[in-house]
Design goal:
alpha+beta, 52% helix
């Protein structure tokens, strides 16, 4: 919402206002950032390790393939099939070998940068170790339906004994490295083998689906425990808030239990001590002003009676004037306490209806008062708020002859303005209007019986509702009194002595 006419930055509007919400956001972001950064670092290290091992393995396989190609090229063509059959029966070789008259087309695995890098390393080794090759092809393929001969024979058609010691076909097939080289015109040697880590391409993707699921489960459990801990830590402060709100509204409340964390115990003790001091202060103040009513009025009356026995008329008149001033001050102080210390519970009230009744009463008395505004609901003490608005309306009608009342509202507050058409107030005198017994020349001339307490009482009542009272001169003449009240039951209430709860 707007603060001093400016909107808060977006990041402040996103952050929750409650302690529970802010701690939850910090815990959630902390866990997520830690998990994400940690797993990214771990995944990077795993990829680097797998890449290094795979490229080293490609270097060795390339050398072994070059040696095998030289060996088979050195044999007479008629002996090659015989040797291949013996190797298949005996087993124990790195490569599955077959001879063909043409290159066997295979469906290569695509989309794996690491597999492409290994193939490139093997190609480089073959170029370096056996440059006499006429042509060769290197690539990875899946064993399912993999052709091994130019006559259409696939890996699935071969006996298990021929491949079980060389290739992994069941139960979890692994990618097969196929090297085909033309050692002589019209003679192609077919070599198939596995990497030392047959599933190296899976290792290159450490954040696989199952890994991500495990990560999410871990993060979820940690966050759940964090939220439970945060809620356990902040729950006592919610009880503190409720107790403070109830005490601030004058409702009966019991002392907070002094148990829990060390910080909360200190806070609870401080609150209980403050509650006791405030309650004693209110009780002492009530007793004090009750005593004033009895102890001051009686001697004032006696002094007035004794003044009547004075022979000097001028002296008697001066005494009467001083005693009348003293009597007015005592009555004003008592009236101020009586008007601000209204014991009632706040409830939801229709502010527009309350104002309409006040305006209707003024109009029936022949006063010029108008009201404009739609339905507005506030959480307030009805009698106290009625007295505050009534004071301002009476002042506007008494000193300004005419009053216009307007009510508007926003998401956060209600604004009530009362404008009169009087002479206004000097700018330098506006701050002093709320002080007790302060009356300007226009006010004394219009109403000699006033005591200058109405605005102070009104502001105390408005402050007790968590609002504010502002005074300003209208550009076209007259004084404008503005009451700002928070909307909703969740807003703070304050006691009449100014303590915020």
């Amino acid at each position: 919402m707007a603060e001093n006419g400016r909107r808060r930055p977006w990041y402040l509007r996103v952050i929750p206002s409650s302690l529970l919400g802010r701690l939850t956001v910090v815990m959630v972001l902390g866990v997520l950032v830690t998990q994400v950064v940690g797993n990214l670092i771990w995944a990077s290290e795993v990829r680097q390790k797998v890449s290094t091992e795979a490229l080293d393995a490609g270097e060795h396989i390339g050398g072994s393939a070059a040696a095998a190609l030289r060996f088979f090229r050195s044999l007479p063509p008629n002996y090659r099939p015989i040797l291949i059959d013996q190797l298949r029966e005996m087993g124990g070789t790195r490569f599955f070998v077959s001879v063909n008259h043409n290159e066997v087309p295979i469906q290569r695995i695509k989309g794996s940068p690491l597999a492409d890098a290994v193939c490139a390393r093997i190609v480089a080794v073959l170029h370096r170790e056996y440059a006499k090759l006429l042509d060769f092809q290197v690539g990875f393929a899946w064993p399912d339906g993999l052709p091994v001969a130019d006559d259409g024979v696939t890996l699935d058609d071969l006996p298990d004994g021929w491949v079980q010691n060389t290739l992994v076909v069941k139960p979890r097939p692994a990618p097969i490295l196929v090297i085909q080289a033309e050692i002589e015109p019209g003679n192609w040697l077919y070599l198939a083998t596995l990497m030392p880590d047959p599933y190296f391409m899976e290792s290159d993707e450490p954040l696989a689906h199952d890994r991500i699921v495990l990560l999410l489960i871990t993060v979820g459990v940690v966050l759940l425990l964090s939220l439970l801990v945060v809620r356990w830590m902040t729950k006592p402060f919610a009880a503190l808030s409720k107790a403070a709100d109830a005490f601030g509204q004058g409702m009966p409340s019991v002392p907070l239990p002094e148990s829990g964390s060390r910080e909360y115990i200190k806070t609870a003790r401080a609150f209980n001590a403050m509650r006791e001091r405030t309650q004693r202060f209110l009780e002492d103040r009530e007793r004090l002003f009750t005593s004033i009513s009895h102890d001051l009025r009686t001697p004032i009356t006696r002094l007035k009676l004794r003044t009547e026995m004075l022979d000097d008329d001028q002296t008697r008149a001066e005494f009467h004037e001083d005693l009348d001033d003293l009597d007015v001050m005592v009555k004003g102080a008592l009236q101020s306490v009586k008007d601000t210390d209204i014991h009632e519970n706040p409830v939801q009230i229709r502010l527009d209806k309350l104002i309409e009744r006040l305006v209707d009463g003024a109009q029936m008395a022949g006063k010029d008062a108008t009201f404009a505004g739609g339905p507005v609901t506030v959480f307030a003490r009805p009698l106290a708020l009625k007295r505050a608005v009534g004071n301002l309306l009476d002042n506007a009608l008494f000193y300004g002859n005419r009053a216009e009342v307007l009510v508007t509202q926003t998401e956060e507050q209600v604004e009530l303005t009362i404008r009169d058409y009087g002479p206004g107030v000097p700018e330098e005198a506006l701050p002093s209007l709320f002080q007790p017994y302060v009356r300007l020349e226009h006010g004394r001339a219009s109403n000699s019986n006033g005591m200058g307490l109405g605005l102070g009482i009104t502001r105390n009542i408005v402050h007790a509702h968590g609002g504010d009272l502002l005074l300003a001169n209208h550009p076209r003449g007259g004084l404008v009194a503005t009451i700002l009240l928070p909307r909703g039951k969740h807003k703070a209430m304050v006691s009449v002595d100014g303590a915020v709860y």
